[in-house]
Amino acid sequence: MILTERHKELIERIGVFHEHKGMQPLVGRIIGLLLIHEEGEVSFDEIVEHLGVSKSAVSNALTFLQAKGRCVYSTRPGDRKRYFALKMSDWREDFAEELENIAEIQKFIDEVLEVRTDRNPEFNCKMKDFSNFLGFFKKEIPVLFERFRRQQG
Amino acid sequence: MILTERHKELIERIGVFHEHKGMQPLVGRIIGLLLIHEEGEVSFDEIVEHLGVSKSAVSNALTFLQAKGRCVYSTRPGDRKRYFALKMSDWREDFAEELENIAEIQKFIDEVLEVRTDRNPEFNCKMKDFSNFLGFFKKEIPVLFERFRRQQG
DNA sequence: TACTTGGTTCTGTATTTGCAGAACCAAAAG
DNA sequence: CTTTTGGTTCTGCAAATACAGAACCAAGTA
Q1: pTM for this structure?
Q2: Could you tell me which residues are beta bridge partners of residue B76?
Q3: A125 touches chain B (CB under 8 A)
Q4: Fewest 10 Å CB contacts: which of A42, A70, A93, B82?
Q5: Which residues are CB-neighbours of B73 under 8 A, at least 6 positions away?
Q6: Do A95 and B10 touch (CB under 8 A)?
Q7: Is B69 on the interface with A (CB under 8 A)?
Q8: How far off is chain B from A143, nearest CA to CA, in Å?
């Protein structure tokens, strides 16, 4: 597959987006390439060539993506190459996990409430309120997915 | 206020949590300290002493937190010190913003769908499905807050 | 057997990050 | 005016990051 300027520019932007989420630059670019590539499956050396980076960098980035469960590879009979693809099928679990991660702050809020005195009841009250919302939010996550499923039919 | 070992250890854990979100270490520690401190308002030099860091580092971290709108300071008559506090009142807006941020991936998914061919319809279909969910999710965010408000009465 | 292919692991390095320390500045106090 | 207080800005550096390049390895090929 030949990448146009538009493709390349979009890959860069997807890369930067993922950098902001804490991933290393190349990992984000690879996600972009795997999203954009027509077949959805891209060989190791195609990644090296399209992104213009070293084999070692690609090897490390792919190991990371596989460890995170965001990427898998398949092989083909009579072909030693590995063809890498995103696990798009897992978007529900991945997204739910992200939501639960941001709600993790509740654990800390609750621990803080345990060690706080009553000297600033208003502050404590707002924290308690936030904690209650986070508890509510976590319970609502599966409900949200269920409602989406029904709405889609 | 004197910080116990438990306080200090909790501040560290809150710091690491925020580091994972992409903040620099000291910023996370300061958030922890402001959460734990009884009065909720902490002077500049108290931060320096409790966290054992330099004035310059604290100055930069506080500037960052204020720019992000997560922190404000107040002053007291006849006292030139600034007392810093978290904007706990803004947790709704902050949390909503975080949710919208993680849903931002939809923009990229849609752009990718525009440039993709039909050579892998199954992959495209899963992406479309994800995009639809993200659209649904964004609309549901305010609904979620409203339902929480009613439930709390 | 030696050679190629496909990828991994090791070593070194340019760049970036995160902070310390000192110089600095503005406002208040003496 | 000089000194002190409270905080900011500038300079420099130690450590971490992210990658290149080379050595390396296992499995297949000639």
Answers
A1: 0.92
A2: B79
A3: no
A4: A93
A5: B62, B66, B82, B83, B84, B85
A6: no
A7: no
A8: 11
